[in-house]
Amino acid sequence: SDVIDEFSLNNVCETALGVKLNDIDGESEYRAAIHNFGTIQAKRTCNPLMYYRIIFYLFGQYSESKRYIEIIHNFSGKIISKKREEFLKDKGRNIDKENSEIKTRYAMLDTLLYEEAQGLIDHQAICEEVDTFMFEGFDTTSTCLKLVLLNLGQYPDVQERCHQEIASLTDFENLTVFDFNNLEYLGCVVKETLRMHPSVPFIGRQCTKETVLNGLILPTNTQISIHIYDIMRDSKHFPEPSVFKPERFLPENTRNMHPFAFVPFSAGLRNCIGQKFAMLEIKAALVAIIRTYRVLPVTRMKDLVLEYGITLRTKQKLFVKLKPRIN
User: Fold this and answer.
1) Residue 198: which of 34, 46, 276, 313 has the closest Cα?
2) Which helix (H) or strand (E) holds 174?
3) Alpha-carbon distance 95 to 105, whole Å?
4) Mean pLDDT per 10-residue run, the chain (327 residues)?
5) Are 15 and 278 in contact (CB under 8 A)?
6) What is the pTM of this model?
7) Is the dihedral of CA 263, 265, 271, 276 positive or negative?
């Protein structure tokens, strides 16, 4: 579990923010703060009295929540400061959208700092974007990747089919988005894992106008909790919902699927803007692992004890064994 958590955080830092985790202190404290803050917010969601700020302040875990938020902000602040130093040292290589000769790969944070230099965004807005990207992109991806590995260990036939598909790739040093998108069965395995164990088990929405749902009147501004976990285990759309079947998501089996039956990234106008990035990140990690190692089971899916939270969690740490493949 810890290895995947560290990898996921380092990956989002390096790919999206352009900063290596080794250069920043406080990584383990940050991960713990994310976990603890999420636990507090999940408990608050389940207690309508805590919706009122004054009650949460007086009787809830306000002080703890505030302390975790400070840790989260401080860590992201260190990342921004580190990147800003590099940016200022290298002004001659600013993003020049009109200069086609510059081929340097820029991270999202480079773009934000460039926009700040142009007066199009301020420091506070950059902090908010970085916090959002890290908070949403670290824990969710880590959870999914761990559970996919557990499934691969538990279903060797599924793992072997994934390995054969990956082996069909030729130039492993220069894989493209097109190559990853062509890993059809591996994508099915990831999707089936997300269907059974969505990284975000529920989402909140607010009625923008009065709505009638199954005869129940929902007034304007009603807060709604949508249980994604239950939606994707509905036997009406997924027969034998408790059985792991990646084939459900092969093209020929999804043509008639309801557009809102599979919603691990939510749906509609407020769906997850990072879903393509997340799928690419997960596939890239799995290609590297499956190509080199055989995944063997340690923790069994049937032994998982799920824990309620903003993101799906397990009470126990998760383990698999990696055995080097012999060519």
Assistant:
1) 313
2) none
3) 10
4) 87 87 83 89 86 87 93 92 86 51 70 90 91 84 95 97 94 90 96 96 90 92 91 96 97 94 90 89 95 96 87 91 90
5) no
6) 0.89
7) negative
Q: Where are the alpha helices (H) located in 266-309, listed in sequence order?
A: 275-292
Question: Is 141 found in the same domain as 289?
Answer: yes
Residue 249: which of 199, 196, 189 has the closest Cα?
189
What is the C-alpha to C-alpha distance for residues 297 and 290, in angstroms, rounded to an integer? 14
Rounded distance between C-alpha atoms, residue 33 and residue 179, angstroms: 36
User: Rounded CA gap, 111 and 109, in Å?
Assistant: 5
Q: Which helix (H) or strand (E) holds 270?
A: none
175 and 312 part of one domain? yes
CA distance linking residue 148 with residue 152, whole number of Å = 6
127 annotated to a ligand binding site: no
Q: Do residues 186 and 282 share a domain?
A: yes
Q: With contact defined as beta carbons under 8 Å apart, do 156 and 173 qualify?
A: no
Residue among 280, 246, 273, 277 at smallest CA distance from 262:
246
- Identify which of 87, 121, 116, 129 has the alpha carbon closest to the alpha carbon of residue 104: 87
Q: 312: domain range?
A: 3-92+103-199+233-324
